[in-house]
Amino acid sequence: MSDARTANLLGAAVTALNDALEAATTSAAEHGAAFPAALVSVHWAPGLSIERLRRILGLSHSGTVRLLDRLEHEGAVERKAGRDGRSVAVHLTLQGRRHVRAILNRRRSVMGSALELLAPAEQDQLGHLVEKLLAGLTRDREHSDHICRLCDEAACPLAECPVEAAVQGE
C-alpha cells in the first residue's frame, strides 16, 4: 500500500470517527463541541482557571467566558474564587457530573463500536500504533491538554498516557 493511500485512509478514518464522536458527545452535552470538552476537562481537573480552560479548548478568553456563562446558566458548572483571589476556579455541579458520565459513556460506545470491527490481536496492534502516533504528535504541555480534552482518564491514567509521557521533562 502506498504512503499516500495509507495517509488518505487514515484521514478518512479519523474524519469518520471524529464525526461520530462529535455527534455522540454533543448529543450527551446537549450543545456544541466545546461544551463536552469543557465539562470533561473540568471533571478531571476541578478548579481549572478560565485561562487554563481557554488554552485546553483553544478558545479566546471572551469565548471561554461566554461558554462558562451558558454552562453556569444551565446549572452544569459553578465559578468560585481561585487560588490567588483574583482568578476564578471552575467546578462541576451535580448536573455537570451527570453530563460528563453521559459524554464519557457515549464516547466509549462510539470508540468501542469501531474497535469491534477488529480482531483482538488487531486491537492490540492498533493500540500500540496509536500510542506511538500520539507520542509523536504531542508538541508540548498545552497541546497535550488539548489532545486529551475528551479523554477518559479512568481508562488511560496519567501514568500510562503516551501523551502525558511525551511532555514529561519539558
Plain-language structure description:
The chain is mostly helical. The protein has 8 helices and 3 strands, in the order H-H-E-H-H-E-E-H-H-H-H. The protein has a 3-stranded antiparallel β-sheet with strand order 1-3-2. Strand 2 (77-81) and strand 3 form a beta hairpin.
Key traits:
3 strands; Arc Repressor Mutant, subunit A; 170 residues; single chain; 66% helix; mainly alpha; 2 domains; globular; 3-stranded antiparallel sheet
Helix and strand string, N-terminal first?
Answer: HHEHHEEHHHH
| Number of helical regions | 8
What CATH calls the topology of the largest domain is Arc Repressor Mutant, subunit A
Output mean pLDDT. Answer: 92
Proportion of helical residues: 55-70%
Count of separate structural domains: 2
Structural class computed from helices and strand pairing: mainly alpha
Coarse shape: globular
Low-pLDDT residue intervals, each spanning 5 or more residues = none
Q: State Rg.
A: 17 Å
The appropriate CATH architecture of the largest domain is: Orthogonal Bundle
Number of strand elements: 3
Amino-to-carboxy terminus distance:
37 Å
- What topology, given as strand order, has the largest sheet? 1-3-2
| CATH homologous superfamily label of the largest domain | Winged helix-like DNA-binding domain superfamily/Winged helix DNA-binding domain
**Assigned CATH class of the largest domain:** Mainly Alpha
Strand content: 5-15%
Quick one: biggest sheet?
A: 3 strands, antiparallel
